[in-house]
Specification:
Strand content: 25-35%
Structural class: alpha+beta
Number of helices: 10
Number of domains: 2
């Protein structure tokens, strides 16, 4: 028998420690020549340290990375592409502390193969692979010193016994350096300020022994190229959105292989992404995203259309597919299953879970299954999202009472939400909250035209869409329109603050390392995003007026809804002064608020103790503001200005 209790006060077994214990952050799966599966595993219980794992065929998972090493690159600050296999028993990786590149053979310790930088972490490596000669490593290097960082494509000897050679330089950014199977040719992508890689990139090809003799194959300021990759026959492939969707092409004559009204690539926030891979029979397995839902498809030899492989997975994160023979390895999740490293055999159609995100399964009785929604928004347009209703087998809400709603605004902002089992969402829905994960205009996964609706309108249309999602569900009678909350991190934190300052629809909000002052962000952020706002808002300082108009910090007197802010004190993307300035303004204006800052955390929290404290504090804050008593035993939060 279920118990009747106010929404928000339901007791749930999905407590903050259980959420944190799902903290194995899995990604970057790869299949070695001996059929062993490798992957990267982030561990919040070890301060967010990332280690490499390996499971030999028929064996058990084992840790490869020894104590004292942390597999992560700081190139572009967001990193990615921090490791690659150089053989069945040999791996290359970037170490977080010194940013040097190391080689490690199974059973042996890591050996540095790049020089010690003159300044700490001054030479950063990413997206590197062993060339066909078996002796040379080719990758991206980011050089930090005075002024803006310099990005290059470089080669270096695997044994570390020779100098680093610069193969390409002079452009603002480089990625995807890929050497052909015969070792003769080098392909890469590059782009310049103010473009981001999902705006406009170029694909270049050059002889490896004479990279200055390079020629442009595809791309430009209005075409985004993703993942150039050679097949075993030496044919170069890539993904381009030249027809409005990220589709697959072969470089010979620029032959279009797919014509999907769906995206086969992701925004390149990280190095080393891989949304497609080649099987031994010549077919291509790829991640296809339609309306925010990701599925695994295959392009059979000679086929004109992709074939759905019928797998249950709907979310691949930032994909990294790896193929060997008939098998594909990847990290994925679904509405019924959490993220896992999966091995799929295309010949038999069977899947095998290699590694789950947690050893503790979540009881399905406390898990909300999302449904896709479309809703009207400003300008007569339509926006998208996924709604997770309250779900707890032990509780019902009182008759006549509607649940409070949390609007989740994703980061990026050029990213997208996918439908999947998320313990953090289940934490809220199992306590009686509804959660809507909004794919506002500007999100990826809906084609280039939808992605570009945020150009010049950041802080406006994304916020409008978050408001519209809440109104849509309230008007449909699914949630309580007087108890609407909004939360988000980074760009999602910015949408949260904009919604609270420039609109009156929300009763409370939570900003995680959110942008409060776009002008400060334009001046202070790192190179990768230093001109991002040119496209999102306008050129700076020429349009400083727009930056002020879009910055919540300048209009805090309009803010009436209480807000809780969370900030990492080592954040290089959105520095702590943004949150601290916002807190000072909130205090001066008498707006109820709370502020929690965390030593050692950067942009995106990685430590389990941080995640636990944030969830507890946010629930406590919502209870105090929305008028319900949480069932959890929570450490109080100092709410400044509370009556």
């Amino acid at each position: 028998m279920s118990t009747t209790a106010p929404y928000g006060s339901w007791r749930s077994p999905i407590d903050p420690p259980l959420v944190a214990r799902a903290g194995r952050r899995l990604g970057g799966a790869a299949i070695a020549a001996d059929d062993a599966v490798w992957w990267a595993e982030g561990r919040p219980t070890e301060g967010g340290r990332v280690v490499l794992m390996r499971r030999p065929e028929g064996g058990n998972a084992e840790v490869v990375t020894p104590e004292g090493f942390y597999v992560r690159t700081r190139a572009h600050e967001y990193g990615g592409g921090a490791w690659s296999l150089a053989g069945p028993d040999l791996v290359l990786f970037a170490n977080f502390a010194d940013q040097r590149l190391y080689r490690q053979r199974l059973g042996e310790g890591p050996v540095a193969i790049t020089p010690e930088p003159e300044t700490g972490a001054g030479l950063r490596y990413a997206d590197f692979r062993l060339a066909a000669d078996g002796r040379t490593v080719v990758g991206v290097r980011e050089v930090h010193g005075e002024g803006e960082a310099e990005n290059q494509i470089v080669s270096l000897p695997l044994d570390g016994e020779g100098p680093v050679t610069v193969l390409a330089c002079g452009r603002d950014f480089y990625s995807f350096p890929r050497v052909s199977p015969d070792g003769q040719r080098l392909a890469w992508t590059c782009w310049d300020h103010p473009n981001m890689p999902w705006d406009g990139t170029e694909l270049w090809l050059a002889p490896l022994d004479n990279p200055r003799d390079a020629r442009l194959l595809a791309g430009g300021p209005a075409e985004s190229i993703f993942q150039p990759e050679w097949d075993s026959a030496g044919r170069l492939h890539f993904v381009s959105d030249r027809d409005g969707w990220w589709n697959l092409y072969r470089a010979e004559g620029i032959a279009q292989l797919t014509a999907e009204e769906a995206d086969l690539a992701h925004p390149q926030w990280l190095f080393g992404g891989s949304t497609y891979a080649f099987l031994a029979d010549g077919s291509i397995v790829c991640v296809r995203c339609e309306r925010g839902e990701e599925r695994l498809f295959a392009l059979d030899p000679g086929a004109e259309r992709l074939r759905d492989l019928g797998l249950p997975f709907t979310s691949f994160g930032f994909p990294s597919l790896s193929a060997g023979g008939t098998k594909v390895a990847f990290a994925a999740s679904s509405p019924e299953s959490e993220t896992a490293i999966v091995l799929f055999d295309a010949a038999s159609g069977e899947t095998e879970t290699v590694r789950a995100a947690s050893d503790e399964a979540v009881d399905p009785a406390y898990v909300s299954v999302p449904r896709a929604i479309e809703f009207p928004t400003s300008g007569g347009e339509t926006a998208h999202g996924f709604y997770y209703p309250p779900a707890n087998a032990d509780f019902d809400g009182p008759e006549g009472e509607l649940p409070p709603l949390i609007v989740q605004s994703h980061g990026g902002p050029t990213s997208h939400a996918t439908p999947a089992l998320d313990r953090e969402f289940a934490f809220w829905t199992s306590r009686g909250f509804g959660v809507v994960d909004v794919n506002y205009r500007g999100s990826s996964g809906y084609g280039r035209a939808y992605r570009e609706k945020l150009r010049g309108t950041w802080g406006v249309v994304d916020t409008d869409d978050c408001v519209a999602a809440a109104r849509y569900l309230a008007e449909a009678g699914e949630v309580d329109g007087d108890r609407l909350a909004i939360r988000g991190g980074s760009a999602g934190g910015y949408a949260t603050l904009c919604a609270l300052v420039f609109h009156d629809d929300f009763a409370v909000g939570a900003s995680y390392y959110g942008v409060a002052d776009t002008e400060t962000l334009a001046r202070d952020t790192h190179k990768f995003e230093s001109r991002y706002l040119d496209g999102l808002i306008g050129p700076y300082p020429e349009r400083a007026d727009l930056y002020r108009e879009r910055s919540p910090i300048h209009f805090v007197e309009r803010l009436r809804a209480p807000v809780i802010l969370f900030q990492g004190l080592e954040d290089e993307v959105v520095p702590p002064n943004q949150a601290e300035t916002m807190v000072a303004a909130l205090k001066a204006n008498g707006v109820p608020h709370a502020y929690l800052a965390f030593e050692g955390e950067q942009h995106g929290f990685r430590r389990s103790e941080t995640e636990i404290r944030c969830l507890e504090a946010e629930l406590y804050f919502y209870g105090a503001i929305l008028g319900f008593e949480p069932a959890d035993d929570l450490e109080p939060v100092d709410i400044v200005g509370a009556r």
